[in-house]
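Recall from the previous chapter that SMILES is a line notation for molecules. Here it describes adenosine-5'-triphosphate.
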Amino acid sequence: MEDTQWMSWVEAPWLQRTATYSSLIRFCERLVQVDLLPELVTEIAAEFGVPRCSLVARNRSWETIVSRGEPLASLPGALLADVVDKDAAVWTTSADDSPVMLLPTASSAQHVLVLSGPRLDASQLTEGLGVGRVVGQRLNQLNRVAKAERHVDRMRTMIGLAHSFAGEKDTQTLLERIAEEACRLLKTDRASIFIWDKEQKLLIACPALGVEGGKLFLPDNKGIVGDTIHGAKPIVVDDAYTDRRFDQTVDKKSGYTTRNLLCVPLFDADGECIGAFELINKLDGDFNDDDLNSLQDFGVQTSIAIKNTLELENLVRSNQNLTERVSTGVAIIGESESINALRGTIERLAATDLPVLVLGESGTGKEVAAQALHHQGPRAARPFVAVNCAALTETLLESELFGHEKGAFTDAQSTHVGKFELAEGGTLFLDEIGDMSVGGQAKLLRVLEQKVITRVGGTQSIPVNVRVLAATNANLVESVREKQFRQDLYYRLSVVTIELPALRDRPEDIVPLANFFLKRFCADANRKPLPISSDAEKRLQMHGWPGNVRELRNLMERVAFLSAGDRVEAEDLAFILSPQRDAFDDLSDGIGLAEATNKFQREYIKRAVKRMQGNMSDAAEFLDLHRSNLYRKMRQLGMEVDDVKP
Ligand SMILES: Nc1ncnc2c1ncn2[C@@H]1O[C@H](COP(=O)(O)OP(=O)(O)OP(=O)(O)O)[C@@H](O)[C@H]1O
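With both inputs in hand, we obtain:
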């Protein structure tokens, strides 16, 4: 190492004060230390002894980025372009004869330094070229640092957002936050996230900033967003009003002016487009590749957020439905002995997986009983799926129950999952089973025996774990006898049978049911719960209820919406309960008035005693009679106490 020679930076010969360009090199050395653009132009102005130094850049037109002193009133566009293209400095005089020097920087963003001042001389071009080069390098460096910082900021924001997904359960709030962050980070005026409702062919903007209520619905085939989702590609628009794809309706409505925009599609985990993310009006210049990448990152987070929160919302909603059902809808209302007994039976059966056949007239609450069996049992958290067998032809029923593969038949344009699969882990309720075709019965029987289904047009056997409940208002035993219903299927379905009594046979349930429905419908009609007067109660109890509980429910719905008073009076029901529909149909059979009146009185007393569960004193009070007068009246009508006791 004997030949080793050292030289420090300050010893370099071209740095000696006497050396040509030594001061330029020292100046450039200082320039690379400067971090802020205002300082940079101030230093340069001082070095060249000029009052004005600006840094300009070409966007759509030439713009001043930063300036020391008043910038030139108008920038010489053509000359600036030449400076960049030729990568050459130029000294010239401006319109008012003051000297100007334009220096190329060779920066990636094509900046040019513009110097002007009376003492500026063409001999300074050499020095100017050197300074321009150094400034260009410094700008590239600063740009890289700013980009890296933006990237870090972006990542931090993304992590922050991902973190907040856990705490934020409401989609709207979360989307608003994402949009706000995107505006901040990408220096944009507005941001909207669109969720695509493919079925309704709608785009739902949330948040739709500047729109009253924050929600905006648009047809999915219009505007830039429509093009973005259909093309599944990002779109950048620099000048919205000259772009024919831009739909000006929203601007017209809101009074806002869209200048430029950037829109990216949103995809779910399967690559399906689920919406779009749009940024409007970048605060400085046009949208660039960096903005595009950032927005795509935001897009990924947004898709996750939408999926998570929507799933959560669905869960919450179905849970709420469930709770609501358990507390109201599935509640079996009634105080009669038969309904009390039914509640006990359901409680015992709910815990089992036994098939149950629910019998009863139409509207007696067979589906309510089936739902109670489901919701009180271990399958409650899984789906309850109801199928009305009477409403479907044999072919449709098969595809409805077991599903079909794409192309299985002419209309099968896509794969369809059947009700058995949908009810997986839960309960399938086959309503009106008595109306199922014989072919359908055979297929159902096979599934019940083998516990596997095959979709129509498919070959794969899909195992199913479903509890099957069935209901009918037909006499199935009779149907079996007449060979309209398969006996083997009947035995499979009717391991346990429960029968719902008609409403006319349990008059004590009428008032509790009426109050229950009235309360529910008054809430729907936004009015206070209406009490029922005792006259109206009597009127309800005297009706024959051929349509059973459904008829009562419908009546209460009309009362809640139509009656004017604060209380339901008998008159409110009179116009609804038509006398012809009462139990005394045979009044019109030509019997005399006296006999008809007797018949009516006998029936009325019978119902009153039944309503009072056989207590004669209560029945007399109900009928507004003294107890002894009731007995006398009964004797007159040829009635025995045993005839009337339930
Ligand atoms: N005990 C009950 N408690 C509360 N609501 C009931 C009761 N029974 C019936 N309902 C209500 O009455 C209406 C008819 O009941 P549901 O549909 O269960 O009858 P259904 O016997 O299955 O009728 P269908 O034979 O026409 O299928 C429903 O709105 C149901 O909520």
